[in-house]
Design brief:
single chain; 262 residues; alpha/beta; Rossmann fold; eight-stranded parallel sheet; 10 helices; 8 strands; 14% strand
Amino acid sequence: MNNPEIIYRTLPTNYAAPIDVLKDRVILTTGAGQGLGRAAALAFAKHGATVILHGRTLSKLEAVYDEIEAAGGAQPAMMPLDFLTATQADLDGFAQSINQNLGHLDGIFHGVSHFAPLMPLSSIDLDSWRAHAMVNLAVPAALTKACMMLLKRATSPSVVWLSETHAVKPTPYWGVFGSVKSALGPLAMMWQGEMTDADDIRFHVCVPGPVASPMRVKSHPGELASCLPSPESLAPHFVYLMSPASNIVKHDSVFYMCSHTS
């Protein structure tokens, strides 16, 4: 076992990924139907990956699927699943389907997110806590566990979680979302610490910062999206984290901050 420490790094602003950096790799992207998950899925496909598109809404996944094929990317797979109602049996079946249909898995990008409008902690009920914890933490962790044997067979696999600025810097009214997202750092550290020297899996937590995403519309209604970075502008960061280039120090669990994070 290892004793990793959280190391805060700023993602490189000048990273230019080789166009085939993810060639022949299979990457599961959750929340791929919109926002940062969609941007990540399109970027992974552009750089050669076969992308497994996960989301709750099939029509959104079909639109991303069509974009990837139209751009000449490898044929993706679509695996819709509602994390709010998922069981361990569902997740085990999800991993088995990946193994049967694609044969291997080289990375997971956890882009799925559940977010409710900001409110004081005194107004948050159990149902809200449960939904946030399930979608943002518990089910992604359990899905990673279900896929662990596939990941351990891969070469330099990567697991990336998207966190949030207010999980790193606690702020009033971000209580339920920020609290749940703040658990991702310790989760990644503990998982990395349980890896043996023979394991090659990298666990990363990425803090995108303010970005023109569907969640941002909910948290900052009325804000001009044109004043914020687009999800697509963060795509090189996601490719970097999913590629072997991010394997800087083996067995370090790393928090990555996008360069515009504030």
